[in-house]
Amino acid sequence: MPITIKDIAQITGLSKSTISRALNDNPRISKATIEKVKKVADELGFEKNNNATSLSTSKTGNVALIYQNTLDVDGSKAYIDQLFLNLRHELNKQNLDTIICEATEFSKNTSNSIRLIKQRKIDGLLFFHASISREDREYANKMNIPAINIHFKPENNSNIDYFVTDNEYGGYLAGKHLYEKGCRNVLIISCAPNIGQEYSERTLGCIKAYKEQGIKLSEASFLSITTSFFSGYQFAIDNSGFISKFDGIFAQADVIAAGIIAGLKIKNISVPNDIKIIGFDDCLYSTLFTPFITTIHQPKEEITKQSVKRLTELLNTNSTTAGEFVHSLIKPTLLVREST
Amino acid sequence: MPITIKDIAQITGLSKSTISRALNDNPRISKATIEKVKKVADELGFEKNNNATSLSTSKTGNVALIYQNTLDVDGSKAYIDQLFLNLRHELNKQNLDTIICEATEFSKNTSNSIRLIKQRKIDGLLFFHASISREDREYANKMNIPAINIHFKPENNSNIDYFVTDNEYGGYLAGKHLYEKGCRNVLIISCAPNIGQEYSERTLGCIKAYKEQGIKLSEASFLSITTSFFSGYQFAIDNSGFISKFDGIFAQADVIAAGIIAGLKIKNISVPNDIKIIGFDDCLYSTLFTPFITTIHQPKEEITKQSVKRLTELLNTNSTTAGEFVHSLIKPTLLVREST
DNA sequence: GTGAAAGCGCTAACAG
DNA sequence: CTGTTAGCGCTTTCAC
């Protein structure tokens, strides 16, 4: 029923191999033949059977997007789905289809990425995951399947490419901005849990910015709360006295910043008049209400663009990542709105 | 390099076909042989080359999840990603991998689902889409590829299975609840745009509930705003006078309900004391702050469970949907919180 | 510049 | 219960 190169061969009076070559723009085939073949193929609405192609070339045109089983779509990770959307769009532009999959098979507790490689369902891997197992990475390397970490720096930096936000620089930008807005006594609110050190790096950056100005931030002003709107809200209400001793807050997630602002409103503490606050992420929470939140924009466009570029390069040149891993920290940017 | 059934054949001294049969639990093979073969396969970490299997069986073990190119992940569709997460999890349980893909290829403006079918990359289709083209549906039917619409009722109901929230019933539940809470003068806020009629159905249900009580809601109290937090917020602030003539609001999306409550707070109108408000969806917006929002819970668990069940049935029995389409309206439930 | 034939790794008659 | 053989639809030597 579905149409094959054999059909095209019969119609054009050429052989199957010529059809195959023509469709692949093989230079040994004459322009005229190529055009003729493609014309017939188009008219018939022909598409190659991908399984047959994959069987002989070992290339599927698919990449896997692997995410954590525990992925929290609400709350802290509000911006992830935009990243995914971007990513699939970029991949599609490169004629790649995306198989999206949890890291492990729950029932058997076995690795989905290893399975996909073994089944020859994919050509490459994109890990959106803070703690990929060593086995997964090593198997991909061994099998010559390009693998890239996006957004999360893997706990063991060594043997995988990654494209990740430069969190320390983001923290630095936040600190510098608060300083420039006149804040001299800053409260730093990190998020828990701190997988992949991203939050401590943000803290570090902020400290650095103040150090440059000769100000040493006190350890007493670093704390950490759960990454949710409500925990920020409740924190502000319960600790308004403590908070009002500061003139600036660096909340390391917009969702927390939004919660805190809402809580402070209840306590009649005005942002940015009484206290300034800067968030991190640039996700939906930063523009829920007024004041819109000044924040550090995660460079998700750059992350997707660069990682897809790297991936397609590796796929096209058939080269391994092994031996020359790209570890890229991508600089986020300051986005000034109303809360500072 | 990768291991094949040929290797297993050599090791066990059996033929390739016996290995193939044993791995597929063919009843003609003895228990003993099956066990032996599987043991060796396990020890070698063998997985079948899916391309080879697909080529001979025409089954890939993949399904496509097709979504609208314009999918808005923030705002109105906050609960979609939970649905997707659920869906992939259910599919994975059935040993199906998910290829996730936009409906059309932007550059060529051509259908991705038709391409995937032609390329033999998938066995079935899940459309998360309000307006699938006729061509897509018809091609799937013609090629005997099961296709199912989830969440959205297709504009032309006829020739595709669907599993969709019973929106009219949801509206009815909302109306009934407001009535029981004493509201006699209700404002209905629909969302724009109203693709797939879902919002007008919610309105209809609410009207019906009041009609049962002998109350005719006035057309003057039906309006429609953009589906975003801020538009709800601004609406409330700009129209607090108008709003306070009512004792209840049915906001047909939680995100709007949340925005309205925030706006009313600014105007010192208290929810639920001065006015009661019920939302729709049960997404992250309904528990951002106090008062937590009473809402209609979209039955996403049931939608995913039922549609995956139907899909796997069709895949396993190799039957067509054609001629006996399942059109399922799944009842949402009332979730009473603090705003009513 | 094009064709014949073998092969990718499985499955499925057919045979015994 | 197991083996032999052909075939799925492409690609790719090798030949001309």
Quaternary arrangement of the chains shown? homodimer
Q: Estimate the helix proportion of chain A, in percent.
A: 40-55%
- Note the overall shape of chain A: elongated
Enumerate the spans of chain A where pLDDT stays under 50 for 5 or more consecutive residues: none
Q: Looking across the biggest beta sheet of chain A, what order are the strands in? A: 2-1-5-6-7-13
CATH architecture of the largest domain in chain A: 3-Layer(aba) Sandwich
CATH level-1 class of the largest domain in chain A: Alpha Beta
Structural class of chain A: alpha/beta
Number of strands of chain A: 14
Largest sheet, strands/sense/barrel of chain A: 6 strands, parallel
Number of domains of chain A: 3
How much is the average pLDDT of chain A?
A: 90
* Count of helix runs of chain A: 13
| Gyration radius from CA atoms of chain A, angstroms | 26 Å
- Gap from first CA to last CA of chain A: 65 Å
Task: Walk me through the structure.
Two copies of one chain form a homodimer. Chain A has 340 residues and is an alpha/beta fold. Chain A has three domains: 5-48, no CATH class; 62-166 and 300-332, Rossmann fold (3-Layer(aba) Sandwich); 167-297, Rossmann fold (3-Layer(aba) Sandwich). Helix content of chain A is 42%, strand content 17%. Chain A has 13 helices and 14 strands. Chain A has helices spanning 5-12, 16-23, 31-44, 50-57, 80-93, 112-118, 134-142, 167-180, 198-212, 229-238, 240-243, 254-266, 300-317; strands at residues 62-67, 97-102, 104-105, 110-111, 124-128, 147-150, 161-165, 186-192, 222-226, 248-251, 276-278, 295-297, 327-330, 333-335. In chain A, the strands form four sheets. In chain A, strands 2-1-5-6-7-13 form a six-stranded parallel beta sheet, sandwiched between helices. A four-stranded parallel beta sheet of chain A has the order 9-8-10-11, sandwiched between helices. Chain A has a two-stranded antiparallel sheet with strand order 3-4. In chain A, helix 12 links the parallel strand 10 (248-251) and strand 11 (276-278). In chain A, helix 1 (5-12) packs across helix 2, helix 1 (5-12) packs across helix 3 (31-44) and helix 10 (229-238) runs parallel beside helix 12 (254-266). Chain A is elongated and about 85 Å long. Strand 2 of chain A pairs antiparallel with strand 2 (97-102) of chain B. Chain A binds a DNA duplex (16 and 16 nucleotides) through residues 4-6, 14-18, 20-21, 24, 28-30, 33, 48-58, 120.
